Amino acid sequence: MKSPEMYLECVSCGKTYDPWDLRYKCDCGGILDVKRDLSKIDGEELRKLWDSRWGLKRGVESSGVWRYRELILSVPDEMIVTRQEGNTRLYPAGSAGKWAGLSDLWFKHEGENPTGSFKDRGMTCGASAARRLGAKSVACASTGNTSASMASYAAVAGMRAVIFIPEGKIAYGKLAQALAYNGRTLQIQGNFDDAMALVQDVCRELNIYLLNSINPYRIEGQKAICIETLQQLDWQVPDWFVIPGGNLGNNSALGKALMELHELGIITKIPRIAVIQAEGANPLYTMWKNHTEFKPVRNPETIATAIKIGNPVSWPKSMRAVTWSNGVVEQVTEQEIMDAKAKLDAAGIGAEPASCCSLAGAKKLRDSGVIGPDEKVVGILTGNILKDPDAVVGYHQDTLMDHYGIRGTFANKPVVIPATLDAVRKALGD
Q1: Does domain 90-115+217-404 have CATH number 3.40.50.1100?
Q2: What is the pTM of this model?
């Protein structure tokens, strides 16, 4: 099936551009969408085509992104930069679902991607677009996961990766990846939003291709999270998708995918989208809750470093998705995030702190009656459990109170014992 021609369209004013114009924003300053004429696609035939590709062992379409290439990105195979990303598992929540009061809770675990986060879904498209445009260098501002992913895909593509991170405000598990994949890493004095402002200037002046989520092709790749989840559910649509909100590209992609699938008739039910932000980095929540204009959080703070973003560039697309789906935006405290993490980890699933906003938010929405006890809920887990090991160890050793005000409510403290059988019996309570 041949995909209709792509074009870029401004979210704010509707102006359109050639898809391979090197731009990230409209002349009016608005952010851009990748668009197609979906009336030229037979939704039923497309779904059958996607199902026929399920389980492919090799080739571009064995990727959990490029399996859905007709709605992702139109580039020749030889320009595609892929690590067979996607194909991540969908887990029943088990004991974590019982704790949240939800009988039909599932988690889509994007931490199972090649570099350990959902960013690989968008990065395969961003890197492929960079190759299509002839870029030699790519850059991003990052709190960790984006830099790890971009450095990896740039290495595969033979491009230079330039990374801007806030000094001292990145988890070592993520910084280690950026360094290991040979990314040129620049630690700036400031927070993520300062790094984001700087990287845009650098890319414009030094002819470097920008791969933050302001890049519209990143969002296209991240749509595959939603499409793959629905395919795993045999196209039966859940009542809710619950997703952490940081730079808001992920839930923007989720909403865009659902809109397109609904327009094509591949799904007929519209699930509600719940975006969950950390209380210390909550500009979308504040806007939604108070019905006010969008206002950045000047100095965002949260232990969930992946979403410690006060001025997310994708907020207009994010709000579009929430409004279209009759969704909600919620915030969770540091304590709620880490308690949810302890429960998710103890269920044998595990994820980085930001991911666990999905469980914390689902529980909070269940407790307030927004989500019913028997509704089918899919939470998105964005990163691997080893992305931020310091937070895990700190919680279970109950040492997070002074800096974050977090108690180890469900701490599983290590126990020091003599190397004797009697000591083992005593420690195990036998």
Answers
A1: yes
A2: 0.95
